[in-house]
Design goal:
mainly alpha; 108 residues
């Protein structure tokens, strides 16, 4: 029995990852930047981030561990900071197609 365990552990170590192409792409993506770096974040990117933040609302009724909840809260706060630092706020109106709105000058 002990020999079977050792041989199965050795075979796991020697196997190539499933989806070798996906793994290669993952390692390639880790070496490059996530996006094209510029002085100003474009509006479309902010809209996508706004949509992602709105999707966090779907998690409120689901069961999660405390560490996962804390990590999600940190991620959401980081994304909101990006939107706010670019002069926008999240639009939570479900009837609107715009995910972000421009801050008025006195809303900072």
């Amino acid at each position: 029995m002990n020999t079977k365990i050792k041989s199965s552990q050795a075979s796991i170590k020697n196997k190539k990852p499933i989806g070798l192409m996906c793994t290669a792409n993952y390692y390639y993506l880790k070496t490059i930047k996530m996006s094209i770096l510029t002085k100003k974040t474009e509006y479309k990117a902010l809209c996508i981030i706004g949509n992602i933040i709105k999707e966090f609302e779907n998690l409120h009724l689901l069961n999660m561990t405390r560490p996962d909840d804390e990590d999600l809260r940190k991620a959401r706060n980081s994304l909101e900071t990006i939107v706010h630092s670019n002069g926008y706020k999240i639009n939570y109106d479900r009837n609107s197609k715009k995910s972000i709105l421009k801050n008025s000058p006195n809303e900072n």
